Amino acid sequence: MKKIVIVGYMASGKSIIGERLSNLLNVRYVDLDVEIEKCTKCTIQTLIETKGELYFRKIENDLFKTFLFSDEKIILSLGGGTPCYYNNHLLLQHEGIASFFLDVPIPKLVERIQNDSNQRPLVKDKNTQLLTEFVGKHLFERRFYYSFAKNQIKINNENPQQIAERIYNLLT
Question: What's the whole-model pTM score?
Answer without folding.
Answer: 0.94
